[in-house]
Structure formats: C-alpha cells, structure tokens
Design a protein that fits this description.
heterodimer, A: 2 domains, four-stranded antiparallel beta sheet, B: Multidrug efflux transporter AcrB transmembrane fold
Chain lengths: 323, 527
C-alpha cells in the first residue's frame, strides 16, 4: 500500500509565507493566552494536596463539599469528578508538615456518613519541593534544547541548528498555548510529555534536513526553494508515517491509559500534530528566512574538500619524506 | 566479502539478542523468586512515598544544650561558681566569678571538640565552629536515615527503602503499605523522636507542680513536664537527666502483673552503674521515666536497682508498645523530621493503572503492527518481529539494571512501540524509493539501509539527549519514563536496523528469485 504519489514535487515554498504567517499568529495567540489567562500549575509545581476517592456508588459531590467545608484546611478546595462518577478528586493549596497527621484520615472521618469509599491516593507536595521541581523542569527543557542545538550544529550547520531550535520553540510555545486553552494543568507528567516532544519533534525535522544535505551534495540546482521543495516532498511519506505510528500508540494511551496519564497523553497528541506541522511547513522554509544559500554551502563544502585533499597530500608527502 | 547467504553476522547478533531478551525477561513475566526482574513502582503496586526534611538545625541546638549541661555539671562537681549560664539558640554564655578558676574552666572547654571560646574579661561566649556544625548536621542526617531504616526493617514491611537526598532530606518508600492503619503506624514510627530519659523528681518543689511557671522552674535548674496520660498532672524534674536512651541496649514488649503491655529495657554497663549509684543514693525519692518529653511513670525508689533494667508502663496498647520498643531499640532521632512531599497510592488504584496501561500497550502494539503489516506486507512482518524482540530486550535490560516499572514508565514502553518502528519506516521508504527507480530488490535493500542510516542515527540520538536530561532532572516516576524510552530507543537501533537487515540477508536468495515487490514491500506492481 502507498499513501503518497512519489513523483510529485509539491511546492511548499510557494505557500510557506502563508504558513509562516499562520504560525506567527498562533505563537502570538499563545503568548497572549500565557500572559492573560496564564498557565495553571498542578500541585507538583505550585505545592498543595490532592486526595482521590472512589465510592462504591456515584459520589455525592454536593454532600462532600458541605462536609469538607467544616475543616478550614479544605478552604478553597476544588472538588471534582475524576474520570468516572464514582471517583472524586479533592484539591487544595494547604499542605501539612507533620509526618504523623494525615489528610487521608481527616477526609475519612469527615465523610464517614457519605457512603462507602476508598481513599485511593493522597499526594502532598510542600511549597519548597514544588519550587524545586519547577526549577528542575525548566532546567531540563532549556538544556534539552541547547543539547539538540549543539548536536544539530555539529552534524549539519549553524543555520540548520538555529532553524531547528526555532521550530522547537515554536512547538513548545504553541503546545503550551493549546494546554492553556484546553485547561490542562502543568504537572510533572505534562512536562515529561513536552520534553519528549522536544526530542521527538526534532526527528522529522532532522529527516528533512538530512535529505536537504543529501540533495545539496548531488544536485547542480542552485535554487534553494527547489532543493527544499524536492526534499520535503520526498520525505513527506516518511514524516507522516513515522508520526502516524507514534500517534497510534499515544492515541491508545489517551483512550485506555486511564485518567492519571490523561495530561501526558493529551499533551503528546497535541504536540505530535503541532510538531509534524512545523517540521513540514516551518523548519525548511526557515532556512531561507535565515539566509541560507546553496552557493555558500557548496563553496564551503568545496573548501572543506580542498583542505582535506591538501592535508592528505601533505601527509603523503611527509610520509614519503619529500618534505 | 559475501555476507548474503543463509547465516550472517547480523542475524547471529539478532538471534543472540532474542535468546538474551527472552531468557532475561522470564523472571519478570513469571515473577520468579530468583533472577533479576523488573519490580513495580509504588504508583503501580500501591504504597507510600515520602520526602522528609530533617531539621538539622535542631541537632545543633540540642548539641549546644548538652554542652551547656556538661559545663554546668563540671562547674558543680569541681566547686567552681559560674553565673548567668545561658544557652540561647546556638550560643552559650556564662560568667566566671573567681579568676583563679579560669585555668580549670579553660582546660575543660578545650576538651570539647569544635568549640570556639570567646572571652571578655570573665564573660565567656561559646559557639561551635562552622566545620563542627556541618559535621553535626551531616551526622544528624545519616543517623536519621540509619534510625528510620532500622525502625522500618523491624516493623516488618516488605522492602522499605530509606535513602539520603541532598544535604537535609530523606526519601522513604514503603511499597508494603496496603491500608490506612499500617500507613498511620509507619508514619508514627518514622517521626517518633524516641528520646528516653530517666530523670529525678525534684521532691522539694513537687508540691508546687500545679502552679509553678516554667521560667521559675528554670531558676532552680528544674523542668516541668506533663504526664503522658493527662496534661493536668505535672512533674517538676531536675533538668539534667540521670541518663538517657543512648545507654540503652535493648527494649522488649512484656506484660505487668495486671496483664498490661509494658516495655522492658536494658542498659549497658555504664548506664547500669549510673542507674545503680543513683537509686542507691535516692531511696524514697521518685524516678521519672520520660519518653519524648512526657512522663510515663514516676515510681518510688524502694532500694538500689542493680542489673540495669527498667520498665516503661503507661497504658499502651500492644501495638503501641511494640512500636515504641522498636523506636527505642533503633535509637533516638537527633533532629526532628518534617514532611516535604508525600505520595500514597492505594493498591486498588495501582491495579487499575496496571490494567489501563496494559490495555494501552496491547492495543497500541496491535494497531502499530497491524498497520506495518498492512502497509509493508513482509517488510512489515520483519519490522514487527524486530519490535517484539525490542520489547523483550527492553524488559530484560530494565531487569538487569534493577529498574522499577512506574506508570510513566509503562507510557514510555507504549511510546517505544511507536518510535521503534520509525526506523523501519524510514528504511522501507528508502528501499521503496530505490525500487521505484528500477533498482533490483537486493541492491535496493543494501542501499536503502545505507541511505537511511544517518537520519535514523541523528533522530535517535536527539531523543536520547532529552531522555538523559529527563532522567537527570526528573523525579520519581518520571525517571522511570526516561529510563524506558532511553533503553527502548537504544535497543531499537539493534533490533530495527541490525536485526531486520540480518533477516533480509537471510532470505536474500529467495528475495532475488521472487521479484514480487508487492509481497515483500507492499508496492504496486505497475513499476
């Protein structure tokens, strides 16, 4: 089976202006969301407590709200259904420092009359730990990008490295914007998903860059637009198929993986779509925006080759003892 | 070199990988007693994870207090009069009245390590050096780790894990905790200071126990503590204890004449001597048994008590007595602990998570392998074989590293399924491209692998870069995700590239004969 017509070279560059404008406005929109609505942080980063209950019958959320209001540690608590009508999540900002006292027990006592239930999970993250986790998360994201940039610069060229980082920043920015839009909380899992996306979304970009590098070696064509169009078209099936296989598994995770990893799988789903869009429509055109020139590249390669040959020559002369 | 034929080095490596992968993952799948296996993380099997903060500053304060006690004890026993002895926060100060005694005091102070002595005329200010403070903090942390580990080991939970984190934190993981009662007991056991003191009741002042203020008591060198059962009963005790729990060698649960649970403790020889001497000299007076600043009992001393054994009674339940005995045996906590982070997962939630992630794993696998089969035909079958071996190898390597499988780790394995076949997609697309140009299948395969290599390598390496950073900066279950994706991707280079290539080489004579590119690579025959 084949999905794509293999002989056709699509003119991506012709429409690239349209996509760059779309992307910039999406990024702009994300920035507005970020500064107006703002990212909502889960307890992993903001500190706080989450208690998760499962009733044998549908949970009486109204009663739970009333009963918990009796204790001031639950003031401002967010009490919501979690995944199924039997399950409830109670979330609040206060944390207890004592090792011996336990919120689970307090909840158990307060809600005694509401029916049979099981305290399935108690998560307490103190404010100090929350701050540390946030710092580490940002560190990991920044270092991943720097690591990738260095790697791409080393394997390709600096223009490729800069364009790939712009693509990645674009992915992260728009994914974050979408998370804010869909009210997904920033938790450790969501952060892990974003970091995975950074590592994965670069893959498609690299496949395209790899192809451009290959085209540049073989073709006599000096038109960058042409080279990019050929390369993106030739890798189109690859790009889409590889994303598709990952999309399949992430989608099953989203469907069957359970409520706990919803944040992770949802972020991955969003990011995969955004990432493959940017690889196809943004990463290569940005090479042109950054002023990459085929002629310059070829000259550079020729110079490198010349240097290599010269070195080899000198070496052989040296070995023969003629110098 | 001719490596096309029946067997080739790639296939041999792949076969070794299969044997290794299947063999080493058997202990995990069958959960055998012996052999390295992947154990389930707390989020999958249920359990308690806590990050505790150790208030190491408190250890310094208590060290300063004990130095103050020994200065006082020394002064009293050598008839040196000192005045206005204070221990405030981390500083001790006092005044010496007689200049002739200066030398004696100075000699004594010299014997205390890490003490910085500052003298203005006869006013002494004592502080600990920064180095000494660091040593005390370090000791308090490692002592807390040791003590908590001892206590949990004796409590009888399965595989408790207690480890140092940074300079003032302790990680406690208890996979064995299955219900709220166990958890409560475990937490109390961890946090119990278990500071046992034997103190003399100040019989001259005890009559005024109901009214005396703590500051007044302090003036007489006394301290007021309340009874363990009732806050209203108060005791006035001599501030400096006769001896404390550091001289204890054993503590066991027993029963008294009333069949009430008690804790019998035994002192070491030094403690036994101090205890014997004290009881001999104080017949008729009361001796208070103090645990964590609560008086459990204050019996009259009837005669000299030799042998160095004593009893704590005070209306414990059997379970409480059992836990207190454990805490006493493992020693006191030098510094109090606080809760920084806690994650407890009930076993039913863990079981649900396992079920959900297994379902995702199986359906993800079926979807991906079905797609590969449908799209690439035999090439898809070969890719699927590599994928299965990849999963076995992933499990075996995780088992060998002693990694635990967490819920994000399961997500990582599911993700690996999708990412591992990417290499095969890239290779197969390259092969198809060459076939379209009219190259023979044999040449298309050879060059397809060559052409695809750099892109696969580059993309996998960037994924590994982020996995490594996620491992370094991630915490808890997220580390599990980083481990499973990193191993999965690394292994895919062996299975998806080398392994599949070996299989093609093995079938090469047939492939050359067949010419059926539809069957082998799922392409239309029209080319």
């Amino acid at each position: 089976m084949e999905f794509f017509s293999q002989h056709k070279v699509y003119d991506f560059m012709k429409v690239s202006r349209f996509f760059i404008v779309t992307t910039l406005s999406l990024a702009f929109f994300s920035a507005i969301l970020f500064f107006s609505k703002g990212m909502s942080y889960g307890i992993d980063f903001s500190g706080g407590t989450i208690v998760q209950l499962k009733y044998e019958q549908p949970a009486p959320i109204h009663d739970i709200r009333q009963l918990l209001a009796k204790d001031k540690i639950f003031s401002g608590a967010l009490i919501t259904e979690f995944g199924s009508p039997e399950e409830v999540q109670i979330r609040f900002a206060t944390t207890t420092e004592g090792v011996t006292q336990d919120v689970g027990d307090i909840v158990r006592t307060l809600l005694k009359e509401t029916g049979k239930f099981d305290v399935r999970k108690v998560d307490i993250v103190g404010p100090k730990v929350g701050g540390e986790l946030r710092q580490k998360g940002i560190m990991a994201a920044v270092l991943s990008m720097i690591g990738i940039m260095i790697y791409v610069a080393f394997r390709f060229e600096w223009t490729f490295a800069v364009a790939s980082i712009i693509t990645l920043l674009h992915d992260v920015a728009i994914t974050t914007g979408a998370l804010i839009l869909f009210n997904v909380e920033m938790s450790l899992d969501v952060l892990a998903a974003i970091l995975t996306l950074i590592g994965y979304s670069i893959n498609d970009t690299i496949i395209i860059y790899d192809r451009i590098r290959e085209e540049l070696k073989s073709t006599k064509d000096m038109d960058l637009m042409h080279v990019i169009n050929t390369s993106v078209s030739k890798t189109l099936s690859r790009t889409i198929l590889t994303v598709l296989t990952v999309f399949f598994v992430v989608f099953t995770l989203y469907l069957f993986g359970g409520e706990i990893i919803h944040g992770f799988s949802f972020t991955m789903l969003l990011g995969l779509i955004i990432g493959s869009y940017s690889s196809i429509f943004i990463s290569a055109p940005f090479l042109k925006v950054l002023g990459f020139s085929v002629e310059g590249y070829k000259n550079k390669m020729a110079l490198k080759e010349k240097n290599r040959l010269e070195k080899a020559k000198m070496r052989s002369q040296y070995e023969k003892g003629t110098v | 070199m001719n490596n096309t034929g029946k067997f080739n080095y790639r296939l041999v490596i792949f076969l070794i990988a299969i044997i290794f992968g299947v063999g080493m993952s058997i202990p995990t799948f069958l959960q055998t007693q012996k052999g390295a296996k992947v154990s389930l993380g707390l989020d999958l099997q249920g359990g308690l994870h806590m990050l505790l903060g150790v208030k190491t500053g408190e250890a310094i304060k208590s060290k300063v207090k004990s130095i103050a006690s020994s200065v006082k004890f020394f002064a009293q026993s050598s008839d040196i009069i000192i005045d206005d002895l204070r221990a405030i926060e981390e500083t001790i100060s006092f005044s010496l009245l007689d200049k002739d005694e200066e030398k004696k005091i100075d000699e004594m102070l010299k014997t205390i390590s890490g003490l910085q002595v500052n003298k203005e005329a006869l006013r002494y200010t004592l502080t600990l050096s920064d180095k000494e403070k660091d040593l005390i903090k370090e000791y308090a942390l490692s002592q807390a780790v040791e003590t908590i580990r001892n206590r949990l080991d004796q409590f009888g939970l399965a595989e408790p894990n207690v480890a140092k984190q940074g300079s003032d934190k302790i990680l406690v993981e208890l996979p064995g905790v299955k219900n709220a009662e166990d958890e409560q007991r475990a937490r109390e056991l961890i946090a119990k200071a278990a500071h046992l003191q034997l103190m003399a009741v100040d019989e001259k002042k005890q009559d005024r126990s109901a009214t005396m203020s703590p500051t007044e008591a302090e003036q007489y060198g006394d301290i007021i503590l309340s009874d363990a059962k009732s806050d209203h009963i108060r005791y006035i005790l001599k501030e400096i204890p006769i001896l404390d729990g550091s001289m204890l060698t054993d503590a066991k649960v027993g029963f008294d004449q009333m069949q009430q649970p008690v804790i019998n403790f035994t002192l070491n020889s030094e403690g036994a001597k101090i205890f014997g001497d004290f009881t001999a000299g104080n017949v008729g007076n009361r001796l208070a048994i103090v645990l964590d600043n609560k008086v459990y009992s204050a019996p009259n001393i009837r005669e000299r008590i030799g042998g160095g054994s004593g009893q704590i009674s005070g209306g414990f339940s059997v379970k409480e007595a059992h836990d207190v005995a454990i805490a006493l045996r493992s020693g006191a906590l030098l510094a109090p602990v606080t809760l920084l982070e806690k994650r407890s997962v009930g076993p039913s939630l863990g079981a649900d998570s396992i079920q959900a992630s297994l379902l995702a794993l199986i359906s993800g696998f079926l979807l991906v392998s079905g797609f590969m089969l449908f799209y690439y035909r035999l090439a898809g079958v070969i890719a699927n074989m590599a994928l299965i071996v990849n999963l076995f190898l992933l499990i075996s390597i995780m088992a060998l590293f002693g990694a635990t499988l967490t819920l994000p780790g399961m997500a990582g394995i599911v993700l690996t399924i999708g990412m591992a076949v990417d290499a095969n997609v890239i290779i197969n697309e390259r092969i198809r491209e060459l076939l379209r140009q009219g190259v023979s299948m044999k040449q298309a395969i050879e060059h397809g692998y060559e052409n695809a290599m750099s892109a696969i390598l580059d993309s996998n390496l960037t994924s590994i870069i982020t996995s490594v950073l996620l491992y370094v900066y991630g915490t808890g279950p997220i580390k599990g995700f980083a481990i499973s994706t990193a191993i999965g991707i690394s292994v895919s280079m062996l299975t998806a590239i080398l392994g599949t290539h070996g299989i093609y080489d093995f079938f090469m004579p047939r492939i050359e004969k067949s010419k059926n590119i539809h069957m082998w690579f799922g392409m239309k025959r029209s080319h």
